Task: inverse folding
């Protein structure tokens, strides 16, 4: 035996690969001296990890500054019309969206870790805000931003990023598609100028279409979709002229929202100046409060109408939104960060902490809830952003819009904002998982389909909850029914039953393992030793240990041997030395192992006969 294991150790050493230390040493592996040449990279200090700007500002260069300037200005041209549109979707006036864009852009510069991520109003946050704050005072929206930021901040502080792992990819995709469809359907009424409360029937919708609004809305939508295609134009000839032209078309494409809104606002302004506001045939946005946001505490207590709202009254009005909004925001933000992270590992907890600070700070400036946006992050990436410093330039542009342009926001046609929203979210709808999941994984198919349907029927928060609960049930079923391979094997002259669980087993799966062992013993009439492969077991709880002791006793009563193969050394003390029913052996099994087991079993039948 000793010679055999000595040969195996030499073979490992000849390979000259760094090996991990294994206190068990169950496979004869040894720690090699070469492993000392490999060390983990030095971690940043706690201050640099939390105030993340300290980790990159020291190496900030002019080239990076120019790239960030271009990306920041480009993003500013995108975020302004989007913020106005998302505020309208949430049932708020335009300035609330811009307040959120300003604070999100500035705060992320100091704490954010991914240069491409753009924090501000999104269709997702706007839809949830509308759902929980519809027909309620605007102060409740500000408190929602504060509470969402507080929950996100606490999740970051307590490093609860693992919670996002319980939301699988099919649920995320279905949730995103469902949200996009809801936003598009909700905006159809404004796009066509339909002013009917609730969900109109097709006949009501058709009879209440306002033609001027419909013309403006549909025209804007078509123009936006056409301008979007400019970025994909390719020229057969590759020279300096075509390169510059392609760059110009790309800038026009990504600035399409701002261009469309500006042109229509200018037309409306000139129209009113030459005649009157009553002469405008299409609906315009509401008048916006001019000026910059004021720093003040969130309104935890206020009066509205004939009612006084206290803090607990506000929380009661928000209900499940206090949890749903921050969870969804974290889910969206981490998903975006994962999509754009390149050379470094994503610090999900830091992203949650940063998002929390953005919402907390925003609530002191009357902002609505925010999170990252895929469309804006993609624009930043395409613009060549290098560091989060681009947010400074974006913030300056938004700040300028708040201080200069707010009086002109009232000239923006409502249907044009609906067109901006629909053009932004329609490409987020993805039905490709339908066929792919049906072919490859039925469980994920039902998760995706069910989540999408429930989102459309019962609301996005119920759809998300459905997807999470359904997949948790799948996880529990898998833990309760672990896959086990049962085979009859032979080691020289000894035949034995080999039972190998294909995953770690927790207390919920103990009964399933007991059933497999009993079934195998009954099938083979207790004629052979039973070997349980423990190589995949990482943790033994009390229920599992009791099960193994009980099974060993049952097998021993049938004059047969129960062997635990490849059990970690640190787990062996969990089984009393006085228990002669359980035998330990390493991998690979040998005849000597069975002979030793037979002697320990004190004559429970000859295995070698």
Result:
């Amino acid at each position: 035996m000793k010679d055999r294991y000595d040969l195996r150790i030499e073979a490992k050493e000849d390979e000259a690969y760094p090996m991990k230390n294994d206190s068990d040493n169950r496979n004869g592996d040894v720690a090699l001296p070469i492993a000392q040449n490999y060390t983990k990279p030095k971690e940043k200090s706690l201050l640099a990890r939390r105030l993340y700007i300290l980790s990159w500002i020291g190496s900030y260069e002019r080239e990076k500054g120019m790239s960030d300037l271009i990306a920041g200005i480009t993003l500013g041209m995108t975020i302004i019309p989007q913020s106005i549109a998302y505020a309208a979707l949430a049932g708020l006036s335009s300035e609330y969206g811009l307040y959120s864009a300003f604070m999100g852009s500035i705060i992320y510069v100091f704490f954010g870790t991914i240069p491409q991520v753009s924090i501000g109003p999104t269709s997702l946050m706007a839809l949830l805000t509308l759902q929980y704050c519809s027909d309620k005072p605007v102060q409740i929206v500000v408190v929602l931003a504060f509470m969402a930021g507080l929950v996100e901040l606490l999740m970051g502080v307590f490093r609860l990023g693992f919670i996002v792992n319980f939301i699988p990819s099919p649920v995320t995709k279905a949730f995103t598609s469902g949200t996009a469809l809801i936003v598009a359907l909700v905006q159809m009424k404004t796009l066509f100028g339909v002013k009917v409360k609730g969900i109109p029937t097709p006949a009501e919708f058709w009879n209440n279409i306002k033609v001027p609004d419909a013309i403006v809305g549909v025209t804007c939508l078509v123009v936006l979709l056409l301008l979007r295609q400019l970025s994909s134009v390719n020229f057969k000839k590759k020279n300096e002229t075509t390169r510059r032209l392609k760059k110009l078309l790309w800038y026009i494409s990504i600035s399409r929202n701002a261009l469309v809104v500006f042109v229509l606002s200018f037309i409306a302004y000139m129209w009113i100046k030459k005649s009157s506001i009553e002469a405008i045939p299409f609906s315009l946005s509401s008048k916006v409060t001019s000026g910059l946001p004021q720093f003040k505490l969130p309104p935890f207590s206020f009066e509205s109408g004939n009612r006084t709202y206290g803090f607990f009254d506000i929380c009661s009005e928000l209900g499940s939104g206090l949890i749903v909004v921050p969870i969804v925001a974290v889910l969206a933000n981490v998903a975006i960060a994962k999509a754009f992270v390149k050379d470094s590992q994503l610090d999900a907890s830091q992203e949650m902490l940063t998002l929390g600070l953005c919402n907390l700070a925003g609530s002191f400036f009357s902002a609505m809830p925010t999170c990252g946006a895929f469309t804006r992050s993609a624009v930043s990436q395409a613009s060549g952003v290098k560091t989060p410093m681009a947010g400074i330039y974006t913030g300056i542009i938004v700040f300028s819009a708040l201080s200069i342009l707010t009086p002109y926001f009232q000239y923006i046609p409502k249907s044009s904002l609906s067109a901006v929203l629909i053009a932004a979210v329609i490409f987020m709808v993805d039905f490709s998982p339908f066929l792919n999941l049906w072919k490859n994984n039925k469980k994920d198919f039902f998760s995706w389909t069910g989540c999408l349907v429930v989102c459309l029927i019962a609301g996005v928060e119920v759809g998300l909850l459905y997807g999470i609960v359904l997949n948790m049930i799948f996880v529990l079923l898998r833990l309760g029914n672990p896959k086990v391979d049962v085979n009859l094997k032979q080691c020289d002259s000894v035949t034995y039953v080999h039972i190998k669980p294909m995953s770690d087993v927790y207390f919920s799966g103990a009964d399933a393992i007991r059933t497999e062992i009993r079934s195998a013993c009954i099938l083979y009439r207790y004629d052979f030793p039973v070997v349980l492969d423990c190589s995949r077991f990482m943790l033994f709880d009390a229920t599992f240990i009791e099960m193994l002791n009980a099974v060993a006793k049952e097998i021993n009563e049938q004059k047969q041997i129960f062997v635990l193969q490849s059990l970690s050394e640190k787990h062996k003390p969990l089984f009393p030395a006085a228990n002669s029913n359980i035998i330990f052996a390493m991998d690979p099994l040998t005849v000597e192992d069975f002979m030793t087991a037979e002697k320990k079993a004190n004559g429970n039948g000859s295995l070698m006969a």
